[in-house]
Amino acid sequence: MTPPRGKLDLDPVTVRKARTLARQAGRPIVTMAKKHTTVSVERATLRLAGLQGADADGIPWVNRLLDAVRGDVGIEHGVAAPVWDALVRGEADDLSTLAQKASAGSVRFRLPEGRDLTRAQAAARKQVGAGVRRVDARRRERERLVKRWGDPKQKPWIYLIVATGDIYEDIPQAQQAAREGADVIAVIRSTGQSLLDYVPEGATREGFAGTYATQENFRLMRAALDESSAELGRYVRLTNYASGLCMPEIAALAGLERLDMMLNDSMYGILFRDINPIRTFVDQRFSRQVHARAGIIINTGEDNYLTTADAVEAAHTVTVSQLLNEYFGKEAGLEDWQLGLGHAFEITPELPDSFRMELAHALLARDLFPNAPLKWMPPTRHMTGDIFRGYLLDGFFNLAGALTGQSILLVGMMTEAVVTPWLSDRDLALQNVRYVMNAAGNLHEDFHPAPDGYIAQRARQVLGESIELLEKILAHEGKHGLLEAIADGTFGLMKRPADAGRGQDGVAKKAPGYFNPATDILEAT
Amino acid sequence: MTTEATTGPAAAQGAAQILRPYGDTTGDGMVQLSFTLPMPHSKVAEGAAAQLANKMGMDPALVVHAKAMGPDFTFFVVYGRVNHLIDVSKVEVVERDFPLLTPKEVNAAVKRALRRRLVVVGACIGTDAHTVGIDAIMNIKGFAGEKGLEYYREVKVVNLGAQVSVPQLVARARAEKADAVLVSQVVTQRDAHILNTKEMSAAFREAYPADRRPVLIAGGPRFDEAMAGELGVDRVFARGTTPGEVASYLVDQIVTRRATRKTGV
């Protein structure tokens, strides 16, 4: 398939070369990821099988059960066989009783063999398969509701954030935001959740600068937005974060509770959270397979590169990351319409021609990924507390989004870096978006940058630098060029060796005969 | 207030000591204000906004804009004149006792003075598992819109994470030849943060000769910045400290002071 040549008229040979290089850089990572499993992948499998709840200390039963199995036989064979072997042997009637007995130390796990193994595998397949079918049913339910209530009438979709820390405060705020025009609601997570090696349980009312991602919080918010969708006559989407140490589990919960979009970046956790690279890539692949199956749109985190590095110097790192995210996403089964690749309006406003450069970068992303629902992120780095100047900057951000045909627009707040948004901040920000869309929403029809003009040249330059960076990554010695490139700081400014970082002790190389019914089903998708 | 910080009247050389806000004429006292009231938009709501502005000392108060935000809220912009006088000679501020540097300046200063990277070892010590503070300062993700110490090219960051014992911390600081050690303490049950920090500073004093000891910094939301002496550390950073402030302090301590010491010898 040849994609239509966009407004920049990029050379198709160059574009193909960039994709080929990304594939070459990504493929060894996928091979490596397939050879490993993690505690979180195994726990996600137990969650798909329906194991919920937590003990009196708030530690989820999936963690208790996994730890018990791991203590007896390790995770390198997958936990499914030993767990369902115990159930088939009659150690407990169901998973949750088994988890309770296991954490009290009254069950011993073994690696079943022969007919015992066959029986355990069949039982595991049946129960995990039922969970995957529940995810499928949720996807069909979404499709039905979107048909009934409809998609937003305009593009880009308007994406707003709520983050009070208390799910019961978040709900009325989210419903109000939807009434004011938000098409997508994102609930920001509590600071530090990405580094927890378990998913908290239940409805939560205390978070730091955000609300914990829990299955119950997901359920409550989705139900509230279903109410709003019915009231407003358009399907309001819900977003959360499948990132950090528990991303496979959170992806599974998102699938089970019909979340619609998930933040899910292939390298963010490694570079910005110092999570072990192998852990991240293994968890990433599983979570993307779940998202693919669940019909969830992922949002990638390229905006983060620009908040740490200069947005002009580092423009090509965004493109490289988008290409890698596309490769990893498609390899895991995601389709173009599910790839919400990110980028951001973060060039220093004082720089001459900064807006022209923003247009060049945004258009480059649009032309490289014509069928992806690109996510356009507002200025944060240059929001200073001067709310008046910030409001103007957000107006230009909105205009750039309209001119370059972005798909999902995260609404910028003039009080960024000052306070968590007030009711009036959100109202003013939405007025800003509405004015620009109303005044210039169709301006992209008239906007054709001159073929040899500043914008086209700048876009070609960034694409060229992206290819150079990909070549540099591939030039690394060793069989995992990208891992080694990450280790020596080629990416961003952080050095992240493959044998360090958080969550490393939760990674295991798969043993021969590794069995996981969830990955079996998802790989076949 | 730290002993090193200076307190006192701000110097306002060449400016009047008694001031009023300035709109377009000297002494007009004009200010602008915006706020939201939890009531539907109506004449009464506008009157309510004017009443608030009056009570805040704006007289006359002009409600120049009122807009309904949904059925239950109204947003206002008010312009008006205040009668208050500002006595600049009575303004008190706590001054930082080190210059605030940009990441570029920090990198340049380290490069120039050390000719190697500045090594910072950080940890949450004791049973404290709250790495939010140390991560906000050290992880590249940063805090309050500022990138963490990892972002600084010339700073080598070794973040040991949570529940690190004091002997472990000392051993790692020695192995890394740390220039500075940062410990974060969030949990304050039974003064755990104070006891842990004292234990840490004592251990470093024992392990190092006085002139070789790394700069010791304690941070956490419940610390008082005046406690440095009592805790045996060089500096305490309280709630709201940004990575840039920590980096600037380190440059001041390690780079500037070291240079001074050398020229002194």
List keywords for this structure.
heterodimer; A: 525 residues; alpha/beta; nine-stranded parallel beta sheet; two-stranded antiparallel ribbon; 19 helices; 52% helix; B: 265 residues; three-stranded antiparallel beta sheet; 12 strands; disordered N terminus
Describe this structure in words.
The complex is a heterodimer of chains A (525) and B (265). In chain A, strand 9, helix 15 and strand 10 form a beta-alpha-beta unit. Chain A has 525 residues and is of the alpha/beta class. Chain A is globular. Chain A has 19 helices and eleven strands. In chain A, the strands form two sheets. Chain A has a nine-stranded parallel sheet. Chain A starts with 11 loop residues before the first helix and ends with a helix. The model of chain A has no long low-confidence stretch (mean pLDDT 93). In chain A, 52% of the residues lie in helices and 7% in strands. In chain B, a hairpin with a 3-residue loop joins strand 4 and strand 5. Chain B has seven helices and twelve strands. Helix content of chain B is 32%, strand content 25%. Chain B has 265 residues and is of the alpha/beta class. Chains A and B meet through helix 10, helix 12 and helix 16 of A and strand 3 of B.
Run of helices and strands of chain B: EEEHEEEEHEHEHEHEHEH
Coarse shape of chain B: elongated
Number of strands of chain A: 11
**Beta fraction of chain A:** 5-15%
Order of helices and strands of chain A: HEHHHHHEHEHEHEHHEHHEEHEHEHHHEH
Unreliable residue stretches of chain A: none
Helix content of chain A: 40-55%
The pLDDT mean of chain B sits at: 85
Unreliably modeled segments of chain B: 1-13
Helical proportion of chain B?
Answer: 25-40%
Distance between the termini of chain B: 32 Å
Protein name (chain A): Lysine 5,6-aminomutase subunit alpha
Domain D-Lysine 5,6-aminomutase alpha subunit (chain A): 8-520
InterPro entries (chain A): Cbl-dep_enz_cat, Lys-AminoMut_A, Lys-AminoMut_asu_sf
Pfam family, one (chain A): Lys-AminoMut_A
